[in-house]
Design brief:
Layout (H helix, E strand, L loop, with lengths): L2 H14 L8 E9 L3 E5 L6 E4 L14 E10 L4 E5 H19 L3 E9 L2 E6 L2 E6 L18 E10 L4 E5 L1 H18 L5 E10 L2 E5 L4 E5 L20 E10 L4 E5 L11 H4 L5 E9 L3 E7 L2 E6 L20 E10 L4 E5 L11 H4 L5 E10 L2 E7 L2 E6 L21 E10 L4 E5 L7 H6 L5 E10 L2 E8 L2 E8 L17 E10 L4 E5 H7 L3 H10 L1
Parallel strand pairs: 13-15, 18-20, 23-25
Antiparallel strand pairs: 1-2, 1-4, 2-3, 4-5, 6-7, 6-9, 7-8, 9-10, 11-12, 11-14, 12-13, 14-15, 16-17, 16-19, 17-18, 19-20, 21-22, 21-24, 22-23, 24-25, 26-27, 26-29, 27-28, 29-30
């Protein structure tokens, strides 16, 4: 071949080779793979050798496969070309990041780890920061569940010089929810059955995402049964089926419920729990007047305090506790008002059945002081039987303000049975009736003489204390039956007078005495007249 022809051929070959510049992105084809590197042809005079560490996935590294590379350096006289696939990838990714930011386009990335305030996402080999507040539209308490997940993000901030990227998943979800919400608002109607996810739980209810719209389940619509807090029924993240109860499109409010999808528990309540039947239930709350018992979710009955025990109790807490399981008897059902009356004492034998036989009227019984009231003391005679010792039946002669002034709790005393009313479960007891009425003793001595000590001086006469057997009782001397024509300055408290017993009325508890008649009966009328003249 002639010299001129060879030069023309070389010039032609040289023209066919690519003209490349350092810093450009070039396409290269794999022509051979070696244990530590790949031979790449970019259409230049010589091939490039690229370390296998530049390739993320070696399974894709096949002969004939083409990749983009960054041409870092060319040494023509030595025929060396330096390429970087990783840097080419980074340049391309940064372009995508800029496009995501300016054009609001989503990028896929994988959450690789947690850091303070959020997570780190790997977006095609570049790390980006995902703040905790931008992970979801709802508050996320546990971010660990997102680690390893591949998600869609949008770049909301970047600085290429500082290699800083901030992404958000929340803005994507908000837009999706907005679209879903628009569609849902257009077609949603009451009575619809929808599926949703629990987003938030508050004291008064649960917020559920039902497809771009947050619906509220109020605590009363979570269950037919009694609950104290929504967290007893649901937790954040739960998938639930709900029924649309009410819609206010202007206020963007949707009321939903769960219990409305469950059978109404009061439907056949009379058949399930007939009157006089025994049922088991759980004590849900205690009040001053009774205890509420849940016999199934949504069906509660009340044990009135009067139906708790055959004995008198002051408070339901004396015998019951919240959470306790008890057996009760159904006493009455009002389905319309959703009320069931229950009895606890009816599950035990009625101790009042033989009370008249065991404690007949007039008998002397022994009991223990159980408790006090303003009007007396309750005496336990036997298990389940209490009698009332009225304050007026404590003493024949003493005025007692409170039974606790003369009795003590758990004190054992004897009483007399005065009256029994089994139907009302009442027994009247007396303490003073254990001995004879001192007024009866006095009545046997009417017209006899006695001595009395002045206790009180009043406008109409004088109150005295006189002996009556082992007691001292009060008696009254009318003004007209006193020796002196005036009590002022002539009688004083503590003076002892000679008196005659005129009248005893045990029913009205009245004793009438006379000083004048005592002296008349003693034949000293003249002394009386002289005293009168002196006055």
């Amino acid at each position: 071949m002639k010299k001129d022809e060879r030069e023309l051929i070389l010039q032609s070959i040289d023209k066919s080779l690519k003209r490349v510049k350092e810093g450009e992105i070039v396409e290269g084809e794999v022509i051979m793979t070696l244990p530590a590197e790949a031979i790449i042809d970019i259409g230049f005079k010589s091939e490039a050798r690229v370390p296998l560490s530049e390739f993320d996935d070696l399974s894709e590294l096949e002969v004939g496969k083409k990749f983009d590379f960054l041409l870092e350096k060319v040494v023509e006289n030595e025929g060396l070309i330096f390429l970087s696939k990783r840097k080419a990838d980074a340049i391309r990714v940064w372009k995508e990041i800029e496009k995501s930011y300016y054009d609001k386009i989503s990028l896929k990335g994988k959450i690789i780890k947690l850091v303070k305030g959020g997570c780190i996402a790997n977006i095609k080999g570049i790390e980006a920061f995902l703040p905790g507040s931008q992970i979801d539209v709802a508050e996320v308490r546990d971010m660990n569940k997102f680690v390893g997940e591949t998600l869609d993000f949008r770049v909301i901030k970047f600085d290429k010089l500082k290699d800083n990227i901030v992404v958000s998943r929340k803005v994507i979800l908000e837009k999706e929810f907005q679209k879903k919400a628009e569609i849902l608002w257009a077609k949603i109607k009451e009575e619809d059955i929808l599926e949703g996810e629990v987003k938030n739980i508050v004291d008064f209810g649960v917020f559920v995402d039902i497809g771009g719209i947050d619906g509220l389940i109020r605590i009363g619509d979570l269950s037919w049964g009694r609950i104290t807090h929504p967290s007893e029924v649901l937790k954040v993240g739960d998938k639930v089926k709900v029924k649309v109860l009410q819609i206010d499109k202007e206020a963007k409010h949707v009321a939903i419920g769960i219990k409305q999808l469950m059978p109404y528990p009061w439907e056949d309540v009379e058949k399930k729990y007939p009157v006089d039947s025994k049922v088991k239930g759980r004590i849900t709350s205690l009040t001053d007047y009774g205890a509420f018992v849940e016999i199934e979710p949504g069906v509660e009955g009340l044990i009135h305090i009067s139906e708790m025990s055959w004995t008198r109790i002051r408070s339901p807490s004396e015998i019951l506790t919240v959470g306790e399981t008890v057996q009760v008897v159904v006493l009455d059902i009002d389905k319309a008002e959703e009320k069931i009356s229950l009895g606890l004492r009816q599950t035990q034998p009625n101790p009042w059945g033989k009370v008249e036989e065991n404690c007949p009227v007039g008998s002397i019984v022994t009991g223990v002081v159980k408790s006090f009231s303003n009007f007396g003391a309750f005496i336990e005679l036997e298990d389940g039987i209490e009698g009332l010792l009225h304050i007026s039946d404590l003493s024949w002669t003493e005025h007692i303000e409170h039974a606790g002034d003369v009795l003590k709790k758990r004190q054992q005393i004897k009483c007399k049975v005065l009256n029994i009313d089994p139907a009302s479960q009442r027994i009247s007891l007396g303490l003073k009736q254990l001995e004879k009425d001192p007024l009866l003793t006095l009545k046997e001595s009417v017209s006899s003489s006695t001595k009395g000590k002045i206790k009180e001086i009043v406008d109409k006469g004088v109150v005295v204390k006189i002996p009556a057997g082992k007691h001292r009782v009060e008696g009254f001397i009318p003004y007209s039956h006193l020796m002196q024509s005036s009590t002022k300055g002539k009688y004083k408290i503590g003076d002892e007078l000679d008196l005659k017993l005129l009248e005893v009325d045990e029913e009205r508890r009245r004793v009438i005495l006379s000083e004048r008649e005592y002296y008349e009966s003693e034949g000293v009328e003249e002394e009386i007249e002289e005293e009168t003249e002196k006055e």
